Every structure is written in structure tokens, then in C-alpha cells.
Amino acid sequence: MSLRINGWLLVCSLIFLPFTIKAAPAFVTKPFYASSMQEIFALRQGKPFIVGLWSLSCSHCRDDLILLASLSQQYPQLDLVLIATDTLDDADTVQTTLATYKLNKTESWVFADDFTEQLRYSIDRRWQGELPRTYFYDASHQARAISGKLDAAQTRNWVHAQYAR
Q1: Distance between CA atoms of 102 and 70, rounded to whole angstroms?
Q2: Which of 34, 36, 66, 150 would be a feasible disulfide site paired with 122, CB 3.0-4.6 Å?
Q3: Is 61 left (phi over 0), alpha (psi -120 to 50) or beta?
Q4: Tens of pLDDT along 120-150?
Q5: Pair 110, 32: CB distance under 8 Å
Q6: Whole-prediction pTM value?
């Protein structure tokens, strides 16, 4: 009798198993609020990281994404945070674009407030919104900000100095 019940349970579990298992997405683009930079810093105490600000409509941003994707593959321990300055309505397109550049395991955010000046101010009081904008934070969180397209050699040198230990 117990063999018959165990067999029945096995059959039922095999039938319903495909409906209960769902693959987790590779990443989820989070909404970026004025307090989000505090969260980003808190998770990286004593660690170097890069914050890349970009937009779907920015052609030079795509060049930077190619470079950063290459460095992420070369240095798997590279801590890269990408913040799209688009809107929450664009979150799916942001995710698809990042997947195209093989950045689907990268922490990703998208602006979540129409008051973009406040969001920019929370990142850097001096930032006026020009893109691309990249911040290189060393382990003590001293930042070097770059506006415009990244210089590949300088970026590779910084990443190598931080992560090739």
C-alpha cells in the first residue's frame, strides 16, 4: 500500500514539477531613487568599483558598454554598476540592451523619478547630466569622474591596478 502511494506521489510530482520551477532572470534592473547611491556605497565598503551612467539614446554610451563588457569578461571580479538615465518605462529595453552587450550579470538601475536633477545631485552635485559619465571609485571610495567616451587604455589600466592582485 505505501509503495503504491509513494509511486503515485512520484508521478504527481513529475507531472506538476515543470509548473513549479521557474528560471530566475539573469538580473533585474532596479529603480534608482535619490537614496540609491547610499545603498550602492553601503554594499561596497572597502572595495573598488565603477559606476557607469548611460542612456539608450546615447551612441557614445554604447561604445563604453562594449569596453566595460570586455573588461567584465577579462576581470570577472570587476564590480560594475550601470545606471540608465532613461525612465522606468524603459526598464525592459535597458535589460535587453545590457544582455546584447553580455552585461546581463551586471548590477543595473534605471532612473525612477521625473525630477532627474535630484537624482543627478544624489550621484554628484557637479554633474549636469552629460553622458556617458563614469565614476572610478577606489577602495577608499575616492572617485575619479569622466564625462564623455572612455579612453580604453586608461580604463584598462585602472581596472588592472584595482583587480589584478
Answers
A1: 9
A2: 34
A3: alpha
A4: 999 999 999 999 999 999 999 999 999 999 9
A5: yes
A6: 0.84
